[in-house]
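Action item from last meeting closed. Structure (390 res):
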């Protein structure tokens, strides 16, 4: 994956001091977990920053980075036109009050609502960050294709001469009819990882091969495929254990019921631990990161974290996942929805500890090539500077 150019700071950047950037994002936790580097990039440019979002428990964390926080009462899942229209009107008033020079909308619903609000407020400078299409992007049936076509029309309909697009992989631009090389497109290495915080640690002893899935517990993440693959592998006599870290997301229609997670956790070799805030310890205790996603990813942060910690990765051939992992180098890439193939790969890795170690080393090197927090921040700084200079 190649990032958009970001090596040198444009000479006009000091002129950005005091100008106002407003982020629009549905959930405060999502902003804190993925987008604080972009806030820091804006502050390095001298921009005043406001984050408009639904407030849960992370207001203080955002304010600690020097941003103002404005609550927005908007349901994340709802694309009901009346609800979206009300939210857009509410947001337009906020944008006018904040005297925004640039609006950065994160994820699909924020783009639709925030783009409409920016139009109502007369703000043409916009960044639309499409971080994958979630369960919509995971659908390949005719309904999914028509829905993706509708999204393309809606998003492109909110485009201005000063609109720029931010993506985390080279597949997603095509979903809305853009070429990845289009000058309006910037591609960054996901949320970015600080490699000085997430560091490789010695691998635990084998056997067993310890595999972990760290993700929201959603069907779209393929958590059930990981469970089935480990069942198959263990039925063949392979010494493999699976740990699941994450919570169901009640606002997501693809959430796995907690009862199902507890049932899986009662099986031999499978444990659901719930959410974790300490991924370094997770990867210290495991050999392989697994994310058998069915699609809809931007660039999964969980894979970046595991790679930074020097762990081999097993994932699926879907946008975002295949942007980071090259089959046979950083890990293995298998077809989506194929538990048997996933089991084959895990069984093979359980017999090749040297290969697991080599792939983990390659994964760490891969992160340093273009997926660090600093590299993402530099690309975003250039993007903001270009938009506000036009």
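Sequence:
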């Amino acid at each position: 994956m190649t990032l958009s150019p970001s090596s040198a700071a444009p000479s006009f950047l000091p002129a950005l001091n005091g100008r106002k950037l407003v982020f629009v994002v549905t959930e405060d936790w999502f902003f804190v977990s993925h987008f604080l580097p972009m806030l820091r990039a804006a502050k390095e440019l001298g921009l005043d920053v406001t984050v408009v979002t639904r407030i849960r428990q992370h207001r203080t964390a955002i304010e600690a980075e020097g941003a103002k926080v404005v609550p927005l009462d908007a349901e994340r899942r709802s694309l009901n036109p009346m609800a979206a229209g009300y939210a857009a009107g509410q947001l337009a008033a906020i944008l006018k009050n904040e005297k925004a020079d640039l609006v950065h909308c994160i994820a699909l619903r924020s783009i639709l609502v925030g783009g409409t609000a920016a139009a109502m407020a007369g703000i043409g400078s916009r960044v639309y960050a499409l971080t994958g299409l979630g369960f919509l992007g995971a659908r390949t049936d005719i309904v999914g294709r028509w829905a993706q076509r509708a999204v393309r029309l809606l998003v492109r309909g909110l485009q201005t001469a000063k609109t720029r697009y931010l993506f985390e992989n080279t597949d997603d631009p095509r979903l809305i009819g853009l070429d990845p090389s289009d000058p309006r497109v910037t591609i960054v290495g996901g949320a970015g990882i600080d490699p000085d915080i997430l560091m490789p640690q010695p691998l635990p002893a084998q056997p067993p091969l310890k595999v972990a899935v760290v993700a929201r517990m959603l069907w779209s993440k393929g958590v059930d495929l990981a469970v089935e693959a480990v069942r198959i592998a263990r039925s063949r006599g392979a010494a493999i254990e699976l740990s699941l870290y994450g919570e169901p997301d009640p606002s997501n229609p693809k959430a796995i019921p907690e009862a199902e997670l507890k049932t899986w956790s009662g099986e031999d070799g499978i444990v659901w631990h719930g959410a974790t805030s300490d991924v370094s310890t997770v990867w210290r205790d495991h050999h392989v990161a697994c994310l058998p996603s069915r699609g809809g990813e931007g660039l999964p942060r969980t894979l970046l974290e595991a790679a930074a910690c020097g762990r081999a990765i097993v994932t699926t051939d879907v946008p975002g996942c295949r942007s980071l992992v090259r089959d046979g180098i950083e890990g293995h890439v298998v077809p989506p929805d194929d538990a048997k193939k996933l089991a084959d790969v895990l069984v093979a890795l359980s017999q090749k500890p040297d290969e697991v170690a080599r792939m983990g080393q390659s994964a760490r090197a891969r992160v340093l090539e273009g997926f660090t927090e600093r590299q993402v921040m530099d690309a975003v700084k250039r993007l903001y500077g270009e938009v506000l200079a036009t």
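Note appended to the action item: The chain is about 40% helix and 15% strand.
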